[in-house]
Amino acid sequence: MWTANNPNGKRDVVEGTGRLHHLDALKLFLIVLVVVLHAAQPYGPADWWYVEREGGSALLAEIARVGGTFLMSLFLFVSAFFVPAAHDRQGGARFLGHRFRRFLPLVLIGFFVVVPALMYPYHQNFRDHPSLDPLTYYLDVYLGEGETPQGWTGPSWPDRQFAHLWFLQHLLVYVSLYAAWRWVAGRFGRPRAPKAVPSAPPGTIAICGFVVVVSVSTFLLRVPYPVDTWIPLLEFIQTEPADLALQASFFWVGLLAYRHGWLTSFGERAGLAWLAVGGVLAAAHLSFGSRIEVLYAPGGLTTGSLLWSTVETVMCVSLSIGLLTAFRRWANRPSPRVAEAGALVFTVYLIHVPVVVALQYATLDLAPWPAFVIVAVVGTVASLLLARLLSRTPVLRRVL
C-alpha cells in the first residue's frame, strides 16, 4: 500500500495530492461481500460447496450471480492499484520478496490445513463412501496416495485443491509478471517514472471499447472452458479460464489507474451514471432472473454464451466504476478502525470459509433465509474479530 505521513502523524493512502481513504472502506466492503456470498452458497447458487442441503432461494442465487460479476475483478483492480508505488519504493527484489512472504504462507496454510479441514467433513457427511479417520482421509483421499474409490463423485480426484486461495495465487502471478516487466523495461529501455499530476481518465468511447474487447475475449475463452470449469495451470495455479479475461484486464487497468491518477480525475457524474447502468442491470436480474437466465449459456460457441459474456462484462465494468466513484464521494474520510480492518482483508479471506462452513452446519435445520442471515451476519463479524485476534498473536501475525 502506498502511504504518506501527514503532519498529524497519520498514515494516509494517497494518489498524487489526493487522499484515498475510501479505498480502505472499499476493501472492507469487498471482503464483507466475499463472506456474504460464500454464506449464501448452500441456499441458492448451483455451485459446488462444502455443505449440501435441500431447498434454496432463487433470489439468493441471483444475488450471488450479480455479486460474482464484479467482486473478484474489482478486488484485483484495488490490489493492483497499490503495486506500482510499492515497486517504486522497494525495488523489484524487495517488492517480490515482500509479496511472497505475505501471500505464499497463506496459500500453503490454506492448502495443507484449511482446505482439508473443510473437505473432511464433506467426505464424511455428503459422500456415499465408507467413513475414514482423519489421517487416512488426509493421506489417501486429500493428498491422493490411495486409489480412486469406485463410483467417486468428486468434485475432483484427489480432494487436494487451493479452493478460495486461487485469488492469492493469481495475485502472486500478476505481481511477478509486473516485476519482470519492470526489470526488462529498466534494463533495455527507459524506466517509467510515476506521474504526480492526474491525466485525463478514459471516456465513454474508451470504456465501451474495453467492454467489447473483454467481452469477446471472455466469450472465446468460454468456448473450450465454460463457467465453473477449473484447470491446474502449470499444475499448480488453480484457474477458471472463463473469468480470466475480466480479472487479468482489471489488474492491468488498476496499474494504469495508479500511474495516470484516474481514481481522482474520473468525473463524479460519469461514475454515478455508470453505477446507474450497473444498478439497472443488477435490478433486472434480481427481479426477473429466471426469465433472463434462459437466454444465457455458460460456454460453448453459442449465442447464449456470447450474450452472458457481454452482459457480465458490462455489469462488472459499470458496477466497478460506480462503486469506486460512490465510495470516493461518500466514504473518503479517515477512519482508523476502517483502515485497520482494511489491512486485515487477506487474513479474513483465508479464515472466513471455515467460519462460514461451521455456521452452515450449525443451521442445517433452519429454512434457507433465516440460515443465510445468521451465517452472513455472524460469519462476517466472527471472521473480522478472529482476523484481528490472529493479527495480534506474536507468532501468527508474522504470517497472517
Q: Could you tell me how far the N terminus lies from the C terminus, measured between alpha carbons in angstroms?
A: 16 Å
Poorly predicted ranges: 1-18
Counted by DSSP, the helix tally is 14
Strand order of the largest sheet: 1-2-3
Secondary-structure element string:
EEEHHHHHHHEEHHHHHHH
How helical, in percent, are the residues?
55-70%
Approximate strand percentage? under 5%
The major beta sheet can be summarized as:
3 strands, antiparallel
Mean residue pLDDT: 90
Structural class: mainly alpha
The best one-word shape is: globular
Number of strands: 5
**Radius of gyration from the alpha-carbon trace, in angstroms:** 22 Å
Structure description:
The chain is mostly helical. 65% of the residues lie in helices and 4% in strands. It has 14 helices and 5 strands. The chain has a 3-stranded antiparallel β-sheet, with helices on one face. Strand 2 (11-15) and strand 3 form a beta hairpin. Helix 1 crosses helix 12. The chain is globular, with a radius of gyration of 22 Å. The protein starts with a strand and ends in a 9-residue tail after the last helix. Residues 1-18 have low confidence and may be disordered.
